[in-house]
Write a structure and sequence with these properties.
12 strands; alpha/beta; 4-stranded mixed β-sheet; 5-stranded mixed β-sheet
Length: 317
């Protein structure tokens, strides 16, 4: 979700802005655990803060940094990603990324990147600037491993995002072509490999691993029609092998918004019925979860056992 227009939390108390009565209430709330520190001098209701996922929590910290820093600051890298709604794998940093043309050093709160930016690389954000989605992807690809860069790029290009993709492939390729840092080869490779058809960070991560393990490149989001007339879109489809592959995330069972009014049990049964219906249409259907991505050998074994060929030997771990 994008947090460009408003921050994730509706109410934040900043000590420097609080009057005497509010400061007393804040101190009492801190002592009882009702208020939690979220940034230097900023506090939120502990219950509300606990509901934020790591990406949204980082976006809130970026908003708090924006309230303190001088106008004209350019927020970039992880900071821009969180505000723009570009999800990532791995942990989010505690420091807030900004990009500057000067040699000013970083602090414990602000992480400064010295790098020139073109006018096409930034967009206004209140009194400050954000790097554009395309430039944000390029910056992340320059500091993350290849898979992390692909996840960021896929998120920015995601076609089924509410409100549409954050950038076009042409914009991403243009931003990548302007990059002149030491990670130029990785940035270019990320730009080439990226797609707008991966519906989650784990699908993107799976796609990178499938390629590295030597399996054929799949078709993404292939449409199938279930017996009741509903459409089912397979995450991965190998038409030459009549084989479906799907990442089985737990969010569809545990996230209330994704369940759309169903109980976890109902969501589980519906997904099982969907899988059974798809299996009757194809030769093989493979499913995997996050632990299988942590150990490439596990995903390799799943796909090979189900009959998908690979050009590479079984990995050692």
């Amino acid at each position: 979700m994008s947090w460009v227009i408003r921050p994730p939390l509706d109410v934040v108390v900043r000590r420097r802005e609080a009057d005497e009565a509010t400061a007393r209430l804040l101190d009492r709330a801190r002592r009882t655990g009702a208020a939690s520190p979220i940034a230097r001098g900023s506090y939120a209701a502990s219950e509300a803060w606990a509901t934020l996922n790591p990406s949204d929590a980082h976006a809130q910290r970026v908003w708090e940094a924006a309230a303190r820093l001088r106008p004209g600051t350019v927020f970039s890298h992880h900071a821009a990603a969180a505000v723009l709604g570009i999800d990532l794998i791995g942990s989010w940093p505690r420091a807030i990324d900004v990009t500057t043309p000067t040699s000013a050093g970083s602090s414990g709160v602000i992480r400064r990147h010295r790098r020139p930016l073109d006018a096409d690389d930034v967009m206004p954000w209140g009194d400050h600037f954000l790097t554009t989605p395309a430039r944000t992807v390029v910056d992340l690809a320059s500091v993350l491993a290849f898979v992390g860069g692909v996840v960021a790029a896929d998120q920015a290009l995601w076609q089924r995002r509410a409100g549409g993709a954050l950038c076009t492939r042409q914009e991403l390729e243009a931003a990548a072509s302007r990059y002149r840092g030491r990670a130029h080869a990785r940035v270019a490779a990320v730009s080439t490999f990226a797609t707008g058809l991966s519906d989650s960070v784990r699908e993107s991560e799976s796609r990178v691993l499938i390629d590295r393990l030597g399996f054929p490149a799949p078709t993404l989001q292939q449409r199938f029609v279930l017996p009741d007339g509903r459409d089912a879109f397979a995450d991965f489809w190998w038409p030459d092998h009549d084989h479906i592959g799907e990442f089985d995330g737990t969010g569809k069972y545990l996230d209330a918004a994704m369940r759309r009014g169903r109980t976890p049990e109902q969501a589980l049964i519906a997904e099982k019925d969907r899988g059974d219906a798809l299996r009757r249409q194809v030769r093989a259907l493979s499913r995997w979860r996050t632990p299988h991505l942590r150990s490439p050998r596990l995903l390799y074994d799943i796909l090979r056992t189900d009959g998908l060929p690979s050009t590479r030997p079984r990995p050692g771990r």
